[in-house]
Amino acid sequence: MTNQCARSTLMRNRARRNNRVSIHLHCPNANMVDKKKYHGKRAALILDFDSLQEAAEIEDCEIDYREFLTFLQEGTDWEYQYVLALVSINPKNPTARDRWIDHLRRSGYIVKPIDAKFVQGSMVSYVPLTLVQEASRLVYKEGFSYLTLVTGAEELIPFTASLRRDAVQVELVQYEDHIPYELTTTATGFINLSNLIQSDEEKEEENQETEEEER
Q1: pLDDT tens figures, 156-178
Q2: Suppose 189 and one of 27, 33, 81, 184 were both cysteines; which one would form an S-S bond, judging by CB atoms 3.0 to 4.6 Å apart?
Q3: pTM score, two decimals?
């Protein structure tokens, strides 16, 4: 990652009337895969929209998914050959995610809506299962050898561990407090979004330092 990504706003301020913190992209030395090491191999990104969006809302952040995709590709020698977003659809309110689906499509994602089901009064998402199916197809049928999985689903622990055993490079992306530690240990690398944010005050200090360096 280069310092340039610090100038790209990833986490945008939510409504000021809610007194939420304005969040900006920041690029410290994070624990990430050295993507250039795997130059030439087929790469794909799969976004578990429900997992990331729920975490972002809890963290009082709003994500621009076009900026998010640009950030993940920043500093690499390739672009992902396949970018997929899995979005769970509430059967009782099937149009609730239409705005987000449109945003994702305009941002460069292939969007796959997945109907959830109600079991004993609780809504069950099939996104983790679909993620496993899609990742398996990419790896074992289409020859992809590098996957970025944006998720925090605990159910994926056995699957990501099996990918590692098959020499597939797996990078996970999520907020640290919204992903099981055991899941991160099965991956080649982990981008902790909690380490990539800074407050308005920190952002202003960084801008002032940049202006002073340019003088």
Answers
A1: 999 999 999 999 999 999 999 99
A2: 33
A3: 0.76
